[in-house]
Automatic annotation (TrEMBL):
Coiled-coil regions, chain positions: 110-148
Entry keywords, A to Z: ANK repeat, Coiled coil, Repeat
Compositional bias segments (type: Low complexity): 1-10, 33-74
Record keyword Ligase present: no
Organism the protein comes from: Gonium pectorale
UniProt name for this protein: Uncharacterized protein
Residues in ANK repeats: 180-212, 213-245
Region described as Disordered: 1-94
Record field: compositional bias (Acidic residues): 75-85
């Protein structure tokens, strides 16, 4: 009996668990005929044996019995398989398919739960780390503000160094402020510490920052009568013309001994210093921008390295998958041709060994994909920081595609209830990491093509699969499995006919009888004469792509109407 291995073989208990699918996918009539012919052969052989043993006693009787047996066998062969037996066989295959799909669903559900647990653990860890960081920042901010007010220069310097080393309190910790906008310089001015004010001004902080009620450091120092600090602030660029929210200037609220200092100050010097301060600020901003761009370039290099690793892992997975398909094909031949049991067992062992290699390659591919996701996330964060865009929250991108339950796949995909697929103008892509959709579609009346099978992708067979779908109005199902094979598909279809995949995707192949260019009269016979094709069956044809990869190719997502199979508990 012809058998068929798939990526779901391991989940179904080894390759044999998935192998009845080929028979179920359209070889029932062939199998029935073969069974009848085998029966006829067996009966004919039995009759011949009986004839040989009784030849001397009753030659005519033996010949008559043999003729009757041959006639009976021929009649059975012409009549085809017994309807009751065929129904029982179909019921058995459907039961196996249901059991396999349930095993796949359960395995995929467990994997999804485990993946969600890992993601939730990562999110919880990130939340805890962020909460700890915010707590540390709050504690450090409070300590810096207190040190500035108290004039604790050593404590302030140590705190600023700690903030810069840990990446806390923003790109410039010296500009740290409380909830009202009062900066370290403002607190130092209010505290009256001349050395602290000088230190902060040398660090290039803004001397005219506005805090609570719009008060600047100079306004607060003047209001509190800090005679040592006011001249330092004026010399550092503080503008005596900036008032509070009520319009009061520093000179208005200063004690008498400071009014003369403020009134006599040359504001032209303030304007000159303002230009210098702006130049220093631009210089610092440029340095910070260069640092951010360097971080972006580093993140881009990280993404490039992760992409290269991901491509290597995908290539290894593809090779492992193709090797598995070859081993399954060899095992199928052993079963079909009834090779010796020892040889069949060796072929089966080779299948199991290839499945182990595939499992290892899948694990490596998953690790590479996760590393690529992490690198891309780091790049997005660096780009957002460099562009000053977003609020710093990095939500997970929603999965692509229209969610559909496996039980609703017949209505949504096959029947297109509501006409959403037809209205989109694109062929459907089914994303299903569980493998249930693959089993479901192979049990439907479809022409199934395994993109990893060299036999399925051979130009003659691929051509007949497509042509048969057009002739009989059946879906052509292209299963990419869990490998990134989409970039290779145009070349594979080009080997049948140049530009074939593009013509199929834009549906131009179906118009103007362009599909007749696929017909090979010497190979296809009368069955595929152009007159045998009908508009109704052409309208019933569809091109379906299956993909079980966790991260499908972006070009594939762009080209297709995407359906995403969701799992139920």
């Amino acid at each position: 009996m012809a058998v068929r291995g798939t990526a779901t073989g391991a989940a179904a208990g080894g390759p044999a668990g998935a192998r009845s699918l080929k028979a179920a996918a359209g070889t029932g009539g062939v199998k029935g005929g073969a069974t009848a012919k085998s029966t006829a052969t067996a009966k004919g052989s039995a009759a011949s044996g009986a004839k040989g043993t009784k030849k001397a006693a009753a030659p005519e009787t033996a010949r008559s019995a043999g003729a009757r047996a041959a006639a009976t066998a021929e009649a059975e062969a012409e009549a085809g398989p017994d309807p009751a037996e065929e129904a029982a066989r179909r019921a058995e295959l459907e039961a196996k398919a249901a059991a396999e799909m349930e095993a796949l669903r359960a395995a995929a559900w467990r994997a999804q739960l485990e993946a969600e647990r890992r993601r939730e653990a990562e999110r919880r860890k990130a939340r805890e780390e962020e909460a700890a960081r915010r707590k540390e920042e709050a504690s450090l901010r409070k300590a810096l503000l207190e040190a500035a007010y108290d004039g604790d220069d050593d404590g302030l310097r140590a705190g600023l160094q700690r903030a810069a080393a840990a990446g806390l309190l923003g790109p410039d910790p010296a500009e740290t402020a409380d909830g009202h906008g009062n900066t370290l310089l403002s607190e130092a001015a209010a505290g009256g510490s001349a050395s602290t004010v000088q230190m902060l001004l040398k660090l290039g902080v803004d001397p005219n920052s506005r805090g609570e009620f719009g008060r600047t450091p100079l306004w607060r120092a003047a209001f509190l009568g800090k005679a040592e600090v006011v001249p330092l602030l004026l010399e550092g660029g503080a503008d005596p013309r900036i008032g509070n929210e009520g319009g009061e200037l520093p000179v208005h609220v200063a004690p008498p001994e400071l009014k003369e200092t403020l009134g006599a100050w040359d504001t032209a010097a303030t304007d000159r210093m303002a230009a210098q301060i702006e130049a220093r600020r631009a210089e610092r901003a440029g340095a910070a921008a260069a640092q951010r761009q360097a971080a972006v370039r580093g993140a881009e290099e990280g993404v490039s390295g992760a992409e290269a690793s991901h491509e290597r892992a995908q290539s290894q997975l593809k090779c492992a998958r193709m090797e598995l398909e070859k081993r399954i094909h060899e095992y199928d031949i052993c079963v079909e041709e009834r090779k010796p049991e020892g040889l069949t067992q060796v072929a089966l062992d080779q299948v199991h060994a290839a499945e182990a290699v595939v499992a290892e390659a899948r694990a490596h591919a998953a690790e590479a994909a996760e590393a690529l996701d992490a690198a891309r996330l780091a790049l997005r964060r660096q780009q957002q920081e460099a562009a000053a865009a977003g609020d710093g929250e990095d939500g997970e991108a929603p999965p692509p595609g229209v969610p559909v339950a496996i039980k609703a796949l017949h209505d949504v995909l096959v029947r297109d209830v509501g006409g959403l697929i037809a209205a989109s103008g694109r062929w459907p892509l089914v994303l299903d990491s569980s493998g249930q959709a693959s089993v479901f579609l192979r049990y439907q009346d479809t022409n199934y093509v395994n993109a990893l099978s060299s036999a399925h992708m051979a130009p003659p067979r691929l051509r007949r699969s497509l042509l048969g779908g057009l002739r009989y109005g059946k879906p052509l199902v292209l299963d990419l499995q869990d490998c990134d094979l989409w970039p290779e598909m145009p070349a594979a279809f080009d080997r049948v006919q140049p530009g074939l995949l593009a013509a199929l995707l834009d549906r131009s192949l179906l118009s103007g009888e362009r599909y007749t260019s696929l017909i090979r009269p010497e190979e296809d016979g009368d069955e595929y004469e152009p007159s045998r094709f009908s508009e109704g069956r052409l309208r019933a044809f569809s091109f379906v792509v299956l993909c079980s990869a966790a991260r499908p190719n972006p070009a594939l997502l762009e080209a297709m109407y995407v359906l995403r199979v969701v799992l139920s508990g």
